[in-house]
UniProtKB/TrEMBL annotation:
A Pfam entry, by short name: adh_short_C2
UniProt-listed Gene3D superfamilies: NAD(P)-binding Rossmann-like Domain
Name of the featured protein: 3-ketoacyl-ACP reductase
Keyword Transferase among record annotations: no
Keyword Transcription regulation listed: no
GO molecular-function term, one example from the UniProt record: oxidoreductase activity
Keyword tags: Oxidoreductase
Amino acid sequence: MSGGRRVAIVTGGSRGIGRGIVVALAGAGYDVVVNYASNADAAKAVCDNVVELGGRGLAVQADISLTEDRQHLVEETLGAFGRIDLLVNNAGVAPNVRADILDAGEESFDRLIGINLKGPYFLTQLVARSMIDQIAAGRIADPKIIVISSISAYTASTNRGDYCVSKAGLAMLVKLFTARLAEHGINVYEVRPGVIETDMTGPVKQKYDDLILNQGLTPIRRWGQPSDVAKAVVAVATDLLPFSTGQVIDVDGGFHLRTL
Ligand code: NAP
């Protein structure tokens, strides 16, 4: 039956926001599959954190842009734990080089769409099908799917159009799967972070230090932390938003606010 510790898959759980989400979910009583692309040591260290918090952690290497790898991720999860109660589509990459949209090439576009959009789209499809079967079998109840998008879903940065397009696509992914999965009792959420202090934003730290601390980019004048994003995920994961689905949860220090 659907009792016992719940199980989450967190893509890109080895570092940054994903790592924060894994640790917070373990603290909230989840066993967690820590997906990663290449950084096995980091993923194993995060699994150790899960164990320290009384949970079970499993590191699974899978490039989410690849069909076989996505299947491997789901099979490994079901093989180890027999259920999936929560999918957090977190893994994502920035362009290797920020390039003006009048110059930017197709290679970067294909890479970002593959990892940031196609990967979550088809992983969500795969996991949703499995969740429907698991609900029917009475193994899980009220599973959820979360997408970590970005303020780039609606903010135009002309030197990383590929990233913005991939994140805008995620916003539609959430609407689509929300509409399709509600009848099965699966809620879907978009968590939309602002500027968060991770490896991804390391190369632009000085620029954002100035924008946040001196120029008032965000009403709350500090960098976001992975733990800020993780708290929103835990709220969903612990059933605090049962009558909300398709909801966008801004975790951005108020960046989205228009002021006059
Ligand atoms: P990060 O520190 O660079 O970590 C990226 C994570 O994704 C790593 O765990 C990495 O695994 C994994 N990953 C990369 N490519 C992958 C692939 N093809 N398949 C599976 N896993 C892959 O990034 P972050 O800042 O935590 O960002 C996490 C998510 O939040 C991304 O979707 C990002 O777009 C979004 N976001 C970030 C910010 C921000 O300011 N940082 C703001 C808004 C949204 P390895 O360790 O193996 O490399």
